[in-house]
Amino acid sequence: MKPPQLHHENLQWLLKQPTDIKLSMLENHLDICRLLVNEILEEEVIALCGERYAHQKPHNGRYARYGYNPGSVRIGEHRLNLSVPRVLDQETRTMKQLESYARLQDITLDEEYLLRGIMLGLSVRDFAELNSNPNARALKKSSIDAAFIERADERLREFESRRFDDTRFVALFVDGKYLAGEQIVLALGVTEQGFKRPLGFIQTSTENSLSVGQLFRNLKERGFSSEGGLLCVLDGSMGLSKAVNEVFGKDALIQRCQWHKRENVLSYLPKGEQAQYKSLLQGAYNETTYQQALERLGEVLRDLHKRNRSAAQSLEEGFNETLLLHPEHYAQFGMTEFSTSFATTNCIESVNAQLERTTRKVKHWQNSPQRSRWIGAGLVEAEERMRRVNNFERLGVLKQALFTAISNPNFN
Q: Do residue 37 and residue 146 come from a single domain?
């Protein structure tokens, strides 16, 4: 089936065709769209001029068919080329504008489809160059760019203004990442039902307590609550811990990410020694009893004080917080099954990976609004594909354990 044959045909033509032609037509939705548009235009032409070759004409024969002009309408991400009927007003000797064609011109780009495509990795230029049908003229890059900016800005506003009054959280993951050419700190919450929800982000030069504290205060203003206990899983920054303590106070318990702590310590050591100390640290974290884990970490710390004072200071900072969720340590509160999934910031690292895929085609970051637009829209898109945390059915036990822990003045 050659597309030019369809310029003047409509849906009635399709219904009369053999099954194989109907099936082949379904393979290309643009041809179906063309038939439907032709049907709409023809209905108006008949209302003005009457059926072809009929003796009785509406409007006392004032209007007459007068050939076709090239035209187009926007269908999704494409502009679809058409042959638009011309109607002559024989009283004024001017062309009668078809109201249906004017209305078709006002159909807007499916911006949600556009946004999802770009978030999934297609660049704006990809959309501008899409041309799956020889009679579909791709939209201009500038039009797609403007539509994406408008929809992404709307998505960002929705993201930054949504409230959490009716949502109870059991955990808060916070991590800094170099994204979109700048340092970005992300906050991810885990609800009592196990759903992961991106909460907010800031652009900051360092993970300092002032800027991160402002992020936390903004979350509280939007209804985020730490009442009853909140497990805060953080990377190795002292600024993050300080901000948690200042904003959430006694309601928060901090678990330092073991992976970040290990990598921070290794970064001070020569490459030839990193594998050895990586094994020692991981072995300590994997000890079956809390006391043995403390003792082995203590041995590594004493050894590092002799070998590399900076590495030792890195391990010493937040020393006990890396073992908060050790199974034996937390068993006194009736909960052991979350020592793996909540001992690191892996939950938020997967979000970072999705954002990296989303933003990888941006070659030049121009300003902060552009970064925020991409990150905000990317977080909303990522949330739709997030799975619940492991053992989510038992999160009620974790919440109760947190409440018991913050109520116990001797817990550490």
A: no
How much is the mean pLDDT over the chain?
81
Q: Does residue 227 share a domain with residue 172? A: yes
Q: Whole domain around residue 66: which residue ranges?
A: 3-107
Are 30 and 78 contacting, i.e. CB atoms less than 8 angstroms apart? yes
For residue 188, the cross-strand partners are 173, 198
Looking at residue 357, its pLDDT comes to: 79
User: Which residues touch 30 (CB under 8 Å, ≥6 apart)?
Assistant: 75, 78, 80, 132, 133, 135, 136
CB atoms within 10 A of CB 378: 27
Query: Phi and psi for 243 in degrees, rounded to 5?
Result: -65, -40
- My answer on whether 62 and 136 are in the same domain is no
Q: Are residues 143 and 258 in the same domain?
A: no
Burial 106-140 (b: 16+ CB within 10 A, else e): eeebbbeebbebbbeeebbeebbebeebebbebbe
User: Is the same domain home to 100 and 193?
Assistant: no
Fill in the DSSP letter of residue 86: E
Q: Residue 182 pairs with which residues in a beta bridge?
A: 179
List pLDDT tens digits, range 144-171.
Answer: 677 778 878 888 898 999 999 999 999 9
User: pTM here?
Assistant: 0.65
Which of 129, 161, 193 marks a domain boundary? 161
Alpha helices by DSSP H, listed for 180-326, are 209-221, 238-248, 258-266, 271-285, 290-307, 309-316
What residues pair up with 178 in beta bridges, in sequence order? 183
